[in-house]
Amino acid sequence: MPPRWGAVSQLFHWTCAALVVALGSIGLYMTELTSPVSKIRIYALHKSLGITLLALVLLRLLWRWTHSVPEPVPGLSRPLRLAAGGVHGALYAMMIAMPLTGWLINSTSGYPLQWFKLINLPSIAAKNEHLNGIAKQLHEFGFWFLALLVLGHVAAALYHHVFLQDGTLNRMLPARRHRPGAMP
Ligand code: HEM
Ligand code: HEM
Fold first, then answer.
1. I want to staple 125 with a disulfide (CB 3.0 to 4.6 A). Which of 9, 66, 107, 171 is the partner?
2. Taking every annotated instance into account, which residue ranges of this chain make up the domain Cytochrome b561 bacterial/Ni-hydrogenase (predicted)?
3. Whose Cα sits closest to atom 36 in ligand 2?
4. Domain boundary assignment for the chain
5. Is 161 in the pocket of ligand 2 (CB under 6 A)?
6. What is the CATH number of domain 7-172?
7. CA-closest candidate to residue 88, choices 31, 25, 9
């Protein structure tokens, strides 16, 4: 097993993390907008970025299952290892569930779905007001659950870095190279 995360895994991790933060912020902001023109534009951006995240997470999981991942950080108790694994699994599940409930809101509203005005995506359900209400609730509660998971995850990463100093965060960051003779 490699001692640290590879460049591709790191790229997936940080791109997905940035997308999740952007999607949550845009989502909270866009529902408050009143101007119909900016509302349409920003909703379209939210949906396109969300579909991008779905595609990236599926590729990321495919990559993870076909490549070896680093072994657990040494010295971590079994319950803590299980907790970390549980949170990581839940983060993956929510990065798939959020785009799917978003897609369901869109389909049950009867709106077409386009990815950056380039690709037309199919509807995953017929127009249905009742199901639309349920999908909106799932999307909103799902977001707060995801936000809680992310907060716990980031707090754990910082705890490892500052207090345990066990290299957990460093192995998800590009390796620092020591080049002899290089300018300081
Ligand atoms: C991880 C991915 C996503 C996150 C974190 C996210 C987050 C959010 C948030 C925070 C809101 C505001 C909820 C509220 O206050 O009512 C929202 C609303 C919405 N999102 Fe997403 N979203 C994601 C993906 C998607 C995708 C892929 C689509 C569509 C294909 C989508 C469609 C919508 C729609 C239509 C609304 C408005 C719902 C309403 O009118 O109540 N979202 N999203
Ligand atoms: C500043 C923000 C973040 C920091 C500092 C951070 C840090 C880390 C670190 C250090 C790891 C590796 C843990 C290990 O080696 O055992 C990791 C893994 C992971 N992170 Fe983050 N992360 C952040 C944001 C996010 C966000 C926003 C998400 C998704 C919503 C996320 C999802 C994941 C997942 C799913 C893993 C597990 C990877 C795997 O085992 O396949 N992270 N994170």
1. 107
2. 4-174
3. 88
4. 7-172
5. no
6. 1.20.950
7. 9
